Amino acid sequence: ERALQLLELGGSVEEDCIRIARCFEAMRQRCCRLEQDGRRVREQLARVEAERAALEVKLKHARNQVEVEMKKRHRAEAELEKQERKLQLVFESLMREPLGSGMLSREQCSVLSAVTGQCLGAALAPRRRSSAVDESCQSLLSHSDISYDHTEDDVVRS
């Protein structure tokens, strides 16, 4: 009886084994795909990590360059302040000269007064960091506007 039961189940067992074998094959193929995906993702991760490391190096260099440029800017601003102070002293000295002394004409005095009011007033204001250079005074002080008097040179040489 048992043998008959096995024979009767035999057709069904065989089909079950085939189904199980097909499931194993599908699982094996799925595992192969997942393994390939894992390799591909690990390679992609390695590329991205290498790119990240390269970008970190670039960022470090850029930060160092910014620091160097900021130091240069601070030195330049300090030099600018120093030169502005010197220019102010020259302007003050020139403005103290009497009008009739022959050093400055009336027109030059008015130009210096205007420059002193506009440029030096702004230059001596509390320091503000700006991205552009104020060149509004440049045309007012061109070298052709101020005549040079050689009479004092002769006195100094004597």
From TrEMBL:
It comes from the Eukaryota. Keywords: Coiled coil. GO terms for molecular function: GTPase activator activity. GO terms for cellular component: centralspindlin complex; cleavage furrow; midbody; nucleus; spindle midzone. One of its GO terms (biological process) is Rho protein signal transduction. Residues 38-97 form a coiled coil. This is RGAP1 protein. It comes from Pampusana beccarii. The lineage of its organism: Eukaryota, Metazoa, Chordata, Craniata, Vertebrata. The gene is Racgap1_1.
